[in-house]
Write a structure and sequence with these properties.
Strand order of the largest sheet: 6-5-4-7-8-10-9
CATH architecture of the largest domain: 3-Layer(aba) Sandwich
CATH topology of the largest domain: Rossmann fold
Strand content: 15-25%
CATH class of the largest domain: Alpha Beta
Bound molecules: S-adenosylmethionine
Number of helices: 15
Number of strands: 10
Radius of gyration: 22 Å
Distance between the termini: 45 Å
Largest sheet: 7 strands, mixed
Number of domains: 2
CATH superfamily of the largest domain: Vaccinia Virus protein VP39
């Protein structure tokens, strides 16, 4: 009774009802919600906290962001769903919110495209730093299983590092990305190696140019957090043949374990105090919060790698950090770079390593009770 009353009290306020209606359409960050609601960040954060406490909403950190969405389970989730059914369909304020929501989502997609377009050349370089270890690709191959790889599509393929690795191992590979510059680079690299990979520019991972049930595996490396989760999951389900998994991976340096990463982040924060991407604890959820009620985790693992850098290549890595290259004006980026160069000269050898954590999740992209996969085929594919 008390739980129900708390949930009802939390929702009984106009902005908080609007928040429920907006977040029923997908997950958003506080700053995105600030734009949709036209209210200050502290106010929006307070409303969000009041809705999270009784379990109407759920929050989870994902890389550099904290996302909010409607809770999937529990008393709070049931109250939220019931209230949403009671909301007037034609309320003009809610209609305006949803228009703004579309605008904010479009902007998110455009920003991601612009960032990666501008960083296309240096992304391949940054990623190639990891290829000595081939850690990411190895993690994905391990996650995808030992049997025949079949047909695979790599979402947010970038310069195609994952796609090319799977093609080398005999999979029939397609790769899509929103950034034409990345796809050009991916095509060129595949052609140089004589690999047949079907790379395509797509409007978004949420709208891929492929027929239903075309693939045995869908992969997404270091990009799942940029996608609109609900829409991309629907697309992944459409693209997969029964029993096929979604494999996601992420990798990031570990500022709490690595002094170079820690000092570099401190420098970013000095120039860009609003940057929220730092101080990652290294915690990798066995079941990422976004999967609740939407997908189930078949297996996951993570491991650490000491990734080799030179002073020059680490400076390149840090210039491409979102808190630097994507947000600061050119002269501040140059100032940051000069300070970092001086720090590196004083503190590290010309060649050094930075500890990174790499994680992979093998997922059935269906709510557990709706999984249409063939359990026998799935057991055979297990890893
Ligand atoms: C960090 S890069 C990762 C590239 C590659 N998967 C890898 O592991 O090297 C993220 C990629 O996601 C792409 N991207 C971002 N939002 C996207 C979307 N909505 N649909 C498809 N691709 C997207 C970017 O253009 C970029 O190439």
């Amino acid at each position: 009774m008390e739980a129900l009353l708390s949930a009802l009290r939390a929702a009984a306020e106009p902005t908080r009802l609007r928040l429920l209606a907006i977040l029923a359409r997908g997950e958003l960050t506080v700053s995105e919600l600030t734009r949709v609601l036209h209210q200050s960040q502290p106010r929006v954060s307070r409303h969000l906290k009041l809705l999270c406490d009784p379990g109407l909403l759920q929050r989870w950190p994902e890389g550099a962001w904290v996302f909010y969405r409607l809770a999937e389970r529990g008393e709070g989730a049931r109250v939220a769903r019931t209230l949403l059914e009671l909301l007037p369909a034609a309320d003009p304020e809610l209609a305006r919110d949803l228009e703004w929501l579309e605008r904010v989502r479009r902007d998110r997609a455009e920003r991601a495209t612009a960032y990666f377009r501008d960083n296309a050349a240096c992304w391949d370089h940054i990623r190639s730093l990891y290829v000595g270890e081939a850690a990411v690709e190895r993690a994905m191959l391990k996650a995808a299983g030992k049997g025949a790889l079949g047909d695979l599509v790599d979402l947010g393929t970038g310069t195609g590092l994952v796609a090319r690795e799977f093609a080398r191992r005999g999979a029939g590979v397609s790769g899509i990305d929103v950034a034409p510059g990345q796809i050009d680079a991916a095509r060129q690299a595949a052609a140089d190696e004589g690999l047949a990979v079907d790379f395509a520019v797509a409007a978004a991972a949420e709208a891929c140019p492929f027929a239903d049930a075309s693939f045995d595996v869908v992969t997404a490396s270091q990009c799942w957090m940029y996608f609109d989760l609900g829409r991309t999951l629907a697309e992944v389900r459409r693209l997969l043949r029964p029993g096929g998994p979604l494999v996601t991976t992420h990798f990031s340096w570990l500022p709490r374990a690595d002094p170079v990463a820690r000092a570099s982040e401190a420098l970013v924060l000095r120039l860009n105090p609003a940057w929220q991407g730092g101080d990652w604890s290294g915690a990798v959820a066995a079941e990422p919060a976004w999967t609740a009620g939407r997908a189930s985790v078949r297996a996951m693992f993570w491991f650490d790698a000491d990734v080799p850098f030179t002073r020059e290549s680490w400076r390149g890595r840090m210039r491409a950090c979102r808190g630097v290259g994507a947000t600061l004006p050119a002269e501040q980026v140059a100032g940051f770079d000069a300070e970092l160069a001086a720090w590196l000269d004083d503190h590290v050898a010309p060649a050094f390593t930075v500890r990174h954590r790499i994680d992979a999740h093998l997922l059935d992209p269906w709510p557990p009770d709706q999984d249409p996969g063939d359990p026998v085929a799935r057991a055979r594919k297990g890893f």
